[in-house]
Design brief:
The complex is a heterodimer of chains A (about 600) and B (about 160). Chain A has about 600 residues and is of the alpha/beta class. In chain A, about 40% of the residues lie in helices and about 15% in strands. The two termini of chain B are about 25 Å apart. Helices cover about 45% and strands about 10% of the residues of chain B.
Amino acid sequence: MKYYRTHVLVCVDPECLKRGAHDIIDALQDELVAEGLIDEVQVLETSRIGGCSEGPEMMVYPEGVHYANLTVDDIPYLVEEHFLKGRIAQKLVMPIEKTVDEELSAPTAKEIRVVLRNCGVIDPENIEEYIAEEGYMALAKCLTEYTPEQVVNDVQASGLRGRGGAGFPTGKKWQLARNSPTTPKYLICNADEGDPGAFMNRRVLESDPHSVIEGMIIAAYAIGASRGFIYCRAEYPIAVRTLNIGIRQAREMGLLGKNILGTDFSFDLEVRMGAGAFVCGEETALMASIEGKRGEPRPRPPFPAQRGVFGKPTNINNVETYANVPQIILRGPEWYASMGTEKSKGTKTFALAGDVKHSGLIEVPLGITLREVIFDVGGGIKEDKGFKAIQTGGPMGGCLPAEYLDLPMDYEALTAAGSMMGSGGLVVMDEETCMVDIARFFMEFTQDESCGKCVPCRVGTRRILEILQRICNGEGREGDLELLDDLCAEISATSLCGLGQGAPNPVASTLKHFRAEYEAHIKEKRCPAKVCKALIRYDILEGVCTGCTVCARNCPVNAITGERRQTHYIDPEICIRCGICMQVCNFNAIEIN
Amino acid sequence: MTVVTRSNQPVVDVVRQVIERHGATKDELIPILNEVNQLLGYLPTEALHLVAAEIKVPLSQIFSVASFYNMLSTKPRGRHVIQFCESAPCHVVGGRKVFQALQNELGLTSGETSEDGKWTLVTTSCLGVCAVGPVLIVDNDIFGNVTPAQVPDILARYH
């Protein structure tokens, strides 16, 4: 295997490509070959370095130097200075403030990276690099030293719980599938990460697919499955590609297929793509989709372990659950159980999004508080504005206000607080967020994604949405809030699957913690956060306005009138609250009421 | 009557080739429809009839699957499809203003195709690139950290 001493990442986003990024890469490779450096310096294509208008650009590691505004003529000089002589080519350097933080480049002190350990460090399209990082050692250990029963025991002892959201003990789930007498048995990986704001699974699939593949092969051995599917959402084409390459390479090495590693255990895997339906993340809907049907859930029992896909025993786990397995086998279940809380063991990945300074992926031991995650790991609220709420667990989760900041992130604690762990999406909201608007927003999503099979969800979520829309439009009525309380309770109790059962959570939690905001919308026809369009007006301040006419000229609906040097006026009947006037005003003469 | 699609091959040929690649079984239905949708730009009725006949599943079931999934379209789409993420993380970082700008610039709202057949605008749920929201995709190109001012420039790149 080649060891490179230097890595050059050249950005090939559309902007950089237009400016000649591929010519730069060609020139670079030619020059490296000419200087005999091609085996020491690796050139890689990457994306979103951040200095787009200064492209073509590249990052050079291990120094972490950013070169920009490159031309083909710069390349010989760059190669000679930096790669031959070991001196940074200063005249080509352009310091950038990272405007694009896809993920934190180095884990902060509070993070422990188990699932994410290889991400960004190895080449996902090269199985040898995974193997060099102890890859497939766990599988070898299982096949040569453990019985399937022992593997199940290890996973049970680790305390690993399903990372997709429900948190069911994984070892127990495997035991149930193992106990089922029918064959053939199937193994499925749920890679339909649909929660808005969650992209942890995407990162693992794109950057370390073998951790998932290995975890699945071990699981298949444990339960006695002969065939597996990775159901990956179609919105993740790169993940699909990386998985397919990984599977092919694993097969070539005898790690998948017949007689794995020369034993009599055989198992094969294929990728199935989704087609854009959030509900297919629900395990029974997912299985229906694999069978070529509409993604409609069905009641359980029977559970997949007894009768799953194609009517056979099936074990379904989330991407992250499988990705933990090789490490648990290699380092032992006691190591895993030493992290986390009493009932929530191990680490969990989270995706921090919204109004937080450092958004991106993190992995922390369970039990860490919300405050630590938002302020220590996440760096606090953007522009140091006030914290208003955090939504945990995706669109079926609840919104928690500041009183809950010291809540430990563990399955039971979050559920007791009216939210849930979910897949790990965390949306942070600052003081300028309207919680009624947010509730409406999430309800729009769940309404849209409802499969339509059961009445409580299909009709109930629509009714909730209608009420919320009315409230945001200034047409809220006395009795609306009580009606919402009732509807939420009913729909949660009677829906067929997790989507319907969880859909009212954002509404219920905002009603509980932010009731005053709802009341302001209904009784005073006022939106305290100044977000709901029908309840705000843009006003021009007399005395501050200079009559420069810039706003009137930029208004897309001609809602502003006024003479030169006279205070202008915005007609609230015509105004569409787009905010352009406020953006273009040079005198801060426009305010929202 | 020939149906206008993104491909220059007749619908019949495209569908037959796809089915041959995947195998004519019921559980390959979604991969088949996905690929046909990709190649033709949408799923013409003719294609659905063909698939029903080849994999021996009633047309009603094929249609029920084709109409269920967001990424499959039974209506023709424009030459360029713009998908705008309308999920919460993009929304709280300014997504609403970007969507407004998109609608103003195109004169379209979600689900509509322009008269000249150039653009289709659809909203999509989370694309999983939340850290660089607001996000929009034109065909297969992803644009992140989009501001309203950038919208005309982004659209101008496509003919």
